[in-house]
């Protein structure tokens, strides 16, 4: 009676087992499908992310190459090398294989009928990455200005980079496009944002040093545990008249309250525990106005003064004393002009400067000055005694550091006297013929921390061979420093083909300003020699123009070491040296001090550096043409995930995925 029922139960079990098995198998298959989809999705997202970084590498590589081009630019046509790339498509890189073929429908950069195919391997910490990138370039403003015009000062360069993973020729490859616009700008150098700037190792060895303005060195900055007073001020990108713009929030506090500025160094900042002023300010145990390991600021190259001569001529520049013209825009370009010039001003007959003047030889200057202008010297600048403005600014500095304070001061002093003295070689302060002067300067210039030999390595700064970690044999070593070789780039056949070799140079010649050519003159300079500070010609009327007194037969007849006042902006990419005395008062630099090597030996109550605020933000308010250099390339706009218009057709043909 119960068997059928039992059999029925048994049969039910037999039926249920296959159903469960089918459900289990289905679940496994569904899970496997889902896992496969997730895996494929994960892999696709990974490739997309990698394509983004490959595209980004293309942008960064192009910006790096443009930076290299600016270092070798000739200032009379500064954008010649960059303009070559206008509206060109340049196949720049293959991350994995340098020999990868050019992409379809896209030719390498073509100039003058010759193809220039620039390729490069890119690695991330030595690890090869799969992918390649293509870059196209558009330059706004190209061909719209006269290359010799002073308005030819900037280019907005739009760079479009597409990254491909695993590569552009693989069906199903993933791509990512980034487009960015950068500003490449030639302007007054950023070195003039500082009261004291040294393109080497900087030091404030003295408790009676006052800096009213920012101080900076491209190497280490050392206060030697002395007690200098350093009160910096905010920096700005630029100025439209007295209107400043582009406030730089260097202390990263998120406010523009005038508390930014201080000490800056491309290397470390040491010995500053006793520094006073805002540069010594601590917040939560940290100094907020000391900025170490900051990127270096390039020095202008004064090897070729043609740009400044042309500018001076265009504005009708001149120097007069007592109503008599000492020179027009250029001294040394006409018959009877020796090339060396003496300018001595007095209260009743001051030096009247108007515009940009170039003295092709040495310049000796002292006394009273009025007007607004600058003098570039092809040799040395000798400051024989005080330089004093007749109608200088109403005060040495603005009353405060806020933007309103500075702009009000700029407006009030826009017409005040302003003088710049810029030397292609050295600036010599005081009577260099004095034996005590020579002994002190020689000792300091030969200090191991003040090296000037052009064997300073890739960064141009001596004593950095071991890198930031201070350990030899690691990846950050500056292996070129002290190797006994002068390592620079050379003009190539490519430069010749593109017409980028200046007159007088040829293929194989050094490119001025590249590698270890620190001063940009294209010559391998050895260590500093005291004889470089001697006058190039005997002091007499046959060798010197200007208003040299007839009674002067040697330099000590017109020079002294008792100098207390420098109303001027000073610049040299070599040595700035002097032995100065004013034991009962202050020695004041009212403008700026900018040099490669510095040897200021002094005996005074205080040594004071007052930054002239008219030099802020490009120096347009200083009233003359400051030395030009390329600013850091700045990113203006960036568009991500831009539709890849150029590659849409190719993507449809090859099955590429455009992202």
Structural description of this entry:
The protein is an alpha/beta fold and 659 residues long. The chain has three domains: 43-187 and 633-658, no CATH class; 191-291, no CATH class; 306-432 and 537-630, no CATH class. It is built from seven helices and 37 strands. Strands 1, 6, 7, 8, 35, 36 and 37 form a seven-stranded mixed beta sheet that branches. A six-stranded parallel barrel has the order 27-28-30-33-32-29. The protein has a three-stranded parallel beta sheet with strand order 10-13-18, with no helix packed on it. Strand 19 and strand 20 form a beta hairpin.
Please supply descriptive tags for the structure shown above.
six-stranded parallel beta barrel; single chain; alpha/beta; disordered C terminus; seven-stranded mixed β-sheet; 659 residues; 3 domains; 7 helices
The largest sheet, given as strand count, sense and whether it forms a barrel, is: 7 strands, mixed
Number of domains: 3
Residues in β-strands, percent: 25-35%
Which word captures the global form?
globular
Portion of residues within helices: 10-25%
Given as residue ranges, the uncertain stretches (5+ residues, pLDDT < 50) are 1-30, 32-36, 94-128, 144-151, 643-659
The average pLDDT value, as a whole number, equals: 83
Total of DSSP H or I helical runs spanning 4+ residues = 7
Number of strands: 37
**Rg, Cα atoms, Å:** 32 Å
**Structure classification:** alpha/beta
Distance between the termini: 74 Å
Write the layout of secondary structure elements.
Blueprint (H helix, E strand, L loop, with lengths): L2 H69 L8 H4 L4 E8 L13 E3 L2 E3 L6 E2 L2 E2 L2 E10 L13 E12 L8 E15 L7 E3 L3 E2 L5 E4 L2 E3 L3 E2 L6 E3 L4 E5 L2 E5 L15 E3 L3 E2 L11 E2 L2 E2 L2 E2 L14 H10 L2 E4 L2 E4 L2 E2 L9 E4 L6 E9 L3 E15 L3 E9 L13 H10 L5 E6 L3 E3 L5 H11 L47 H5 L47 E2 L18 E8 L2 E21 L1 E15 L16 E3 L3 E7 L4 H10 L2 E2 L1
Parallel strand pairs: 8-37, 9-12, 9-33, 10-13, 11-14, 11-34, 12-17, 13-18, 17-21, 24-26, 25-27, 25-31, 26-27, 27-28, 27-29, 28-30, 29-32, 30-33, 32-33, 33-34
Antiparallel strand pairs: 1-6, 2-3, 4-5, 6-7, 7-8, 8-35, 8-36, 15-16, 19-20, 22-23, 22-26
């Amino acid at each position: 009676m119960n068997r059928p029922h039992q059999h029925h139960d048994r049969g039910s079990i037999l039926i249920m087992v296959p159903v469960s098995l089918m459900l289990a198998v289905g679940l496994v298959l569904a899970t496997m499908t889902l896992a496969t989809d997730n895996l494929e999705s994960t892999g696709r997202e990974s490739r997309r992310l990698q394509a983004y970084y490959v595209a980004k590498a293309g942008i960064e590589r192009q910006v790096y190459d443009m930076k290299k081009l600016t270092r070798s630019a000739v200032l009379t046509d500064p954008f010649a090398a960059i303009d070559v790339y206008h509206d060109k498509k340049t196949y720049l890189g293959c991350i994995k294989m340098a020999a990868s073929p050019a992409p379809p429908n896209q030719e390498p950069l073509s100039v003058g009928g010759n193809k220039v195919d620039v390729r490069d391997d890119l690695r991330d910490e030595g690890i090869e990455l799969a992918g390649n990138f293509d870059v196209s370039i558009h330059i706004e403003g190209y061909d719209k200005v006269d290359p010799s015009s002073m308005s030819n000062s900037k280019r907005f360069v739009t760079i479009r980079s597409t990254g491909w993973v695993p590569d552009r020729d693989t069906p199903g490859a993933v791509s990512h496009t980034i487009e960015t616009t950068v500003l490449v700008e030639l302007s007054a150098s950023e070195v003039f944002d500082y009261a004291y700037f040294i393109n080497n190792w900087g030091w404030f060895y003295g408790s009676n040093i006052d800096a009213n303005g920012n101080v900076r060195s491209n190497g280490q900055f050392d206060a030697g545990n002395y007690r200098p007073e350093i009160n910096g001020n905010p920096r700005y990108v630029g100025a439209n008249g007295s209107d400043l713009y582009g406030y730089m929030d260097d202390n990263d506090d998120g406010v523009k309250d005038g508390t930014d500025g201080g000490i800056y160094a491309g290397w470390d900042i040491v010995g500053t525990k006793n520094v006073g002023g805002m540069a010594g300010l601590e917040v939560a145990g940290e100094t907020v106005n000391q900025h170490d390991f900051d990127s270096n600021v390039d020095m202008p190259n004064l090897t070729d003064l043609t740009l400044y001569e042309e500018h001076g001529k265009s504005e009708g520049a001149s120097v007069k004393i007592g109503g008599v013209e000492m020179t027009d825009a250029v001294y040394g370009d006409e018959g009877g002009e020796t090339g060396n010039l003496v300018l001595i001003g007095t209260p009743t007959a001051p030096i009247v400067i108007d515009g940009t003047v170039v003295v092709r030889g040495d310049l000796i200057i002292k006394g009273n000055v009025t007007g607004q202008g600058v003098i570039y010297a092809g040799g040395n600048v000798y400051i024989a005694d005080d330089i004093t403005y007749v109608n200088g600014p109403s005060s040495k500095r603005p009353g405060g550091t806020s933007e309103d304070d500075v702009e009000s001061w700029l407006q009030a002093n826009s017409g005040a006297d302003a003088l710049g003295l810029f030397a292609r070689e050295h600036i010599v302060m005081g009577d260099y013929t004095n034996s005590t002067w020579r002994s002190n300067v020689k000792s300091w210039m030969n200090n191991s921390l003040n090296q000037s030999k052009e064997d300073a390595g890739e960064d141009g700064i001596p004593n950095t061979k071991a890198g930031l970690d201070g350990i030899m044999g690691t990846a950050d070593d500056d292996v070129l420093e002290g190797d006994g070789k002068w390592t620079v780039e050379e003009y190539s056949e490519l430069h010749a083909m593109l017409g980028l070799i200046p007159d007088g140079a040829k293929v194989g010649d050094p490119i001025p300003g590249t590698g270890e050519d620190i001063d940009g003159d294209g010559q391998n300079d050895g260590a500093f020699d005291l004889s470089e500070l001697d006058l190039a010609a005997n002091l007499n009327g046959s060798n010197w123009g200007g208003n040299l007194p007839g009674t002067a037969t040697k330099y000590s007849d017109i020079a002294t070491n008792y100098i207390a006042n420098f109303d001027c902006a000073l610049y040299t990419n070599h040595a700035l040296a002097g032995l100065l005395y004013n034991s009962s008062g202050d020695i004041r630099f009212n403008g700026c001090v900018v040099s490669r090597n510095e040897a200021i030996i002094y005996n005074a109550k205080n040594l004071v550096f007052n930054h002239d605020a008219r030099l802020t933000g490009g120096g347009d308010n200083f009233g003359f043409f400051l030395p030009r250099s390329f600013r850091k390339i700045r990113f203006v706009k960036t568009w991500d995930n831009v539709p890849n218009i150029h590659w849409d057709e190719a993507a449809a043909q090859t099955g590429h995925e455009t992202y």
